[in-house]
Specification:
101 residues; alpha+beta; 22% strand
């Protein structure tokens, strides 16, 4: 029983570390959103692009924010499998550029 208890604690702490690494990675990619001006600029950009493309803002997921662009994933919610598209949007031109992976 003591050995099982130790194994469960090891699994628990391993999962905590994995979750912390995933969250830290996501926060690092979004660190520029801490600046109010950048956050407002990105928000206005996404709202403008969504309106222009006929998208719902809720279908857009921010993947990475840079000083000059934002990388988003667009996922139109339809019945069945939802198709996903990745775009880089320069904050100056607001054009949709495919992600380069």
């Amino acid at each position: 029983m003591h050995k099982l208890n130790n194994q469960l604690w090891a699994v628990f702490w391993t999962m905590c570390i994995v979750i912390a690494v995933v969250i830290a990675t996501r926060l690092w990619a979004m660190r520029l959103l801490a600046d109010a001006v950048t956050r407002e600029h990105v928000q206005a950009t996404l709202e403008t692009v969504a309106k222009r493309e006929g998208w719902f803002v809720s279908d857009i997921s921010i993947r990475h924010v840079q000083t000059d662009s934002v990388i988003v994933q667009y996922r139109q919610h339809v019945r069945g499998r939802d198709p996903k598209s990745c775009y880089r949007i320069p904050l100056q031109t607001l054009e949709l550029l495919p992600c380069t992976n």
